[in-house]
Specification:
This protein has one domain. The protein has three helices and no strands. Helices cover 61% and strands 0% of the residues. The protein is mainly α.
């Protein structure tokens, strides 16, 4: 799973997206469900960071 603020619209932005942001990997095994439950904290931190980025982008959009 990849979290990135880059909007992918072409090969170049796909490469940018793959280079940035957090990556979560979970192997598809019998214990996958348990590990997925344990990554909730990481997802919350990523969500907080995206909210911070959004606020920054909104402030920049208001600048003239």
């Amino acid at each position: 799973m990849k979290f990135t603020p880059v909007r992918v619209v072409c090969s170049n932005t796909l490469n940018q997206a793959m280079e940035r942001g957090a990556t979560l990997r979970v192997a598809h095994t019998m214990s996958m469900k348990d590990r997925l439950e344990n990554i909730a904290e990481a997802i919350n931190r990523i969500d907080d960071r995206f909210n911070e980025l959004g606020a920054s982008f909104r402030r920049l959009a208001c600048k003239t």
